[in-house]
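Onboarding guide, step 5: your first structure request.
Type a short instruction followed by the sequence, for example:

Predict the 3D structure of this protein.
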Amino acid sequence: MSSSEINRALFDEVMVPNYSPQQMVPVRGEGCRLWDQDDNEYIDLTGGIAVTALGHRHPALVKALKEQADRVWHLSNVFTNEPALRLAKKLTEATFAERVFFCNSGAEANEAAFKLARKYAHDHFDEEKSEIVSFVQSFHGRTLFTVTVGGQPKYCQGFEPVPGGVKHAPFNDLAAVEALVSERTCAIVVEPVQGEGGVIPADPDFLRGLRELCDRHNALLIFDEVQTGVGRTGSLYAYMDTDVTPDILTSAKGLGGGFPIGAMLTTDAIARSFSVGTHGTTYGGNPLGCAVAEAVLDEVSRPELLVGVADKHDRFVAALEAINQRHGLFADIRGKGLLIGAELVHAWKGQAGRFLAAAREQGVLILMAGPDVLRFAPPLIIEDADIDAAMASLERAIEQLIQEGPES
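The system replies with structure tokens like these:
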């Protein structure tokens, strides 16, 4: 097949139609820039949906991958391997956790967390203590269990019956959570910043209240840090900016910098409920993924990088606020670190997709967080000049759409 035949149209011919990718095909990247098949250049504010934390082709990650590729690629969990052990040691040294389980994705990390919470409750209390409390508009993955725990019913439609024992409360509403929690609750799971649900930060008092409820009812507190983790909010993990420590934490996305890997972190006492044979994965903890993730962790843990995230946040928000002063497009601008959401005003509700397409035509790539929110999750290494250029391009796209007018 010639390269000219490998194009966006081929997607519609050969791929299962569960995605609708943008009308271009990126072929190479460098730092915060991407180029498509026609050599058009884009500033990437998507970060692979908060994945490419160090940008494209970061030399430390390329070096780690190449060096490990010359040693061993895969062993399965019949054996352990050096990269997995090094990475686990660094994660436990850097966080509250004492034990790590490696897998391939955020959904798998959350699946493991939810299973472990139920198994721990079964081992220490009884089989009736199995309910999980989650939040409306939350997102925890696309397995049948994780879409059920997630608070967006649209992801369950057509896949029923779904697992039982899951309840949902409004986000940031502690009284509503308290009404749902009982001695049957084995876990509460929360995103420190709801990502897919609209880039909504959790209130600090809300998180403290969840911790107290879990302690009172012998339930585990799970932080889903798949999107907020690995420097995204300005700390290695978002819980570190609070006075709340979870019992279980899930990580993925930025952990591999683009190479698939996920992790579930917990304490020694809780981890004991996953005894030999209770849970597993063929590819989890593979040497390639762990070698790359170790390099990511080393780079992201540098204090100057983490401090820079807060500065870049302020620059993004200031630019978005300036755009809003001129055009009155955003009802709210919110987020933490380099996970930022701009909610569209009522007249433009449901039309975030138009802004993605228009921004692409102006050479900048952005995301949605639902149909009403523009989402920005660029590489943590993005330079000020790229932020400024991207915001100028975004404003040109906005001006174009305003001329066209909102859809009725």
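Each response can be followed by summary notes, for example: The chain has 13 helices and 17 strands.
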